[in-house]
Amino acid sequence: MSFPYPLVIFDLDGTLVDSAPAIARAVNRTLTDWKLRNYDLAQITGWIGEGSRQLITYAMRAAGSEVDIDAVMPGFLKHYGETAPEGQAYPGVEDTLATLHGQGVQLAVCTNKPEQFVRPLLQARGLLQYFDGIVGGNTLSERKPSGVPLLHLCAQAGVEPRGALMVGDSEIDALSAHNAGVPLVLVRYGYHKSLDLDAVGAVAVIGTMPELLQLH
């Protein structure tokens, strides 16, 4: 049985790759640069999802710093670039991507991570070969939860929004899918914070990535 959607758009952090430990290292290295306290993985994971600038803004504010974020960003992005490829793919991700790709399904990534860090991470995990389109947080004039990035990827693939599928883990992903009119699948792992996964109207909520292949 062929997969029912000709285009699948995946979130990256918390959906394809467990990148929180690497991101946390970048955040704490930046805080250390500014002689500020460090935070544990759980705290930093709660700040992930809205892009790198908002992430480090949350961290600096939590540490009580009033430093201009523009002054912090160059150092943070340097640390981010150094640690980004360290993220590990979740179990079953590569096999699922390979299966979908082999069936002729177009695959794309839509993330709020800066685009320059997306390809090195996917390449390091052996996943880049499967993707036809990539949109990062700084690729377009708008980012998730706007529907614009998803609509851009749909247009690029020549697929109507209702014929695409967004796979993510967070409220940001759910809102983006809703705003673009794209069907949604959520994963039970990842960085969903307080989101009630079963209450947002997803086509399915899956426990592991290979369960995606069971959609019909």
From TrEMBL:
Residue stretches spanning the membrane: none
The protein, known as: Phosphoglycolate phosphatase
Keyword annotations from UniProtKB, A to Z: Carbohydrate metabolism, Hydrolase, Magnesium, Metal-binding
Reaction equations catalysed: 2-phosphoglycolate + H2O = glycolate + phosphate
Necessary cofactors: Mg(2+)
Entry GO terms, CC: cytosol
Single GO BP term: glycolate biosynthetic process
Organism expressing this protein natively: Pseudoxanthomonas spadix (strain BD-a59)
Broad enzyme group: hydrolase
GO molecular function ontology, one term from the record: metal ion binding
Listed EC numbers: 3.1.3.18
HAMAP family: GPH_hydrolase_bact
Sites where the protein binds Mg(2+): 11, 13, 169
NCBIfam families reported in the protein's UniProt record: HAD-SF-IA-v1 (TIGR01549), PGP_bact (TIGR01449)
SUPFAM superfamilies: HAD-like (SSF56784)
